[in-house]
Amino acid sequence: MKHKFAAIYGERFADLSGRSDAKMRFIHDVNCMLLGEISQGSGLAFRRVALVTLGTGLGFAISIDGTVLKSASGSPAVSIYNLPYRDGTLEDYASKRGILRAYGRNDVTVKQ
Asked: Are 57 and 50 in contact (CB under 8 A)?
């Protein structure tokens, strides 16, 4: 995810950590949350599980038969953040910036 990890993109985690035996694996945050739900949480009882997260952005992940569906890059297989909604996208309304805009105030804090 070059746009989120630009400062370390292309670097080896072992080099950054100073440990030659270090291993690192990046998992998209919403996929990681869904993995927890289908392995230890509310999703255990279901064959098909969908998860929506709300934070600085809008995330969505889906699993079928215990497998989280991913794109070739490891991102969620289905994206909803950029779906058209009113005069923008879903994320323009359902995110930190959307909530701040809805209130029309700069002195409101939205915690993550």
From this structure: no
